[in-house]
Amino acid sequence: MELFIEGISKALSLLINLDGEVFAVTFLSLEISCCATLVSLFIGIPVGIILALSDFFGRRLVISVVNTGMGLPPVVVGLFVTLFLWRNGPLGFLEILYTPYAMILAQAVIATPIVTGITVASIQNLPGNLKLQVQALGATRIQTVWILVREARLPLLAAVMAGFGGVISEVGASIMVGGNIKGQTRVLTTATVMETGKGDFEVAIALSLILLMLAFSVNYLLTVIQQRERPR
């Protein structure tokens, strides 16, 4: 208990004193995770809509693969992304291994199945006759999709929160593809692991608390938006 209290005091001290390294690590964590979440939304929502509204051979198999991907172990993602970005790998020519770009790629791979799976469930949970009613009123295919997305906007916000939460807190993939390089790829999760390994538990607890506050702040903002949009 004493160690935890010291960790809280350390966290407050780092924040009050505007510790440059801590703020750099915090901002990099937020930047990487936000970019990865945006990439996952750009890919996951359209794919989820297509899977929810289309009917083709093997559709259930594809959805099963997506649902399985929602539980992808980050270390496995980190391993395969590393192999792809390695010097002799298929994407080695990009030369982005051990850079923030590699971390964004790995985190996007983790978040995309989460966003896709929740999008599929959100669209499928709409009233079954809603699509037919919209089309009967003369809406085009694009207009129909837009109306369905608007009706499912609240659970889609949950997809954003789930995607962001899945990447801001992961450590395995980030440390494998980023390398935890000071001033370049060190983020809150990898810094926490490093400080714990060094036995500096006060700093590790402080970084963990800052990570929790960051995750809470972003999700609180999204929750306020979601609840404001909730039908009464």
Global morphology:
globular
Q: Determine the number of helices (DSSP H or I, runs of at least 4 residues).
A: 11
Termini, distance in Å? Answer: 44 Å
C-alpha Rg, in Å? 20 Å
Describe this structure in words.
The structure is a single chain. With 232 residues, the chain is an all-alpha fold. The chain has a single domain, classed as MetI-like fold, CATH 1.10.3720. The chain is built from eleven helices and no strands. Helix 4 runs parallel beside helix 9 (172-178). It is globular, with a radius of gyration of 20 Å. The protein starts with a helix and ends with a helix. The model has no long low-confidence stretch (mean pLDDT 84).
Brief descriptors of the model:
232 residues, mainly alpha, MetI-like fold, globular
Question: What's the helix and strand layout?
Answer:
Blueprint: H1 2-16, H2 20-53, H3 59-69, H4 74-85, H5 100-124, H6 130-136, H7 141-151, H8 153-168, H9 172-178, H10 188-198, H11 201-229
Helix pairs in contact: 1-11, 2-5, 2-8, 3-5, 4-5, 4-9, 5-8, 5-9, 6-7, 8-11, 10-11
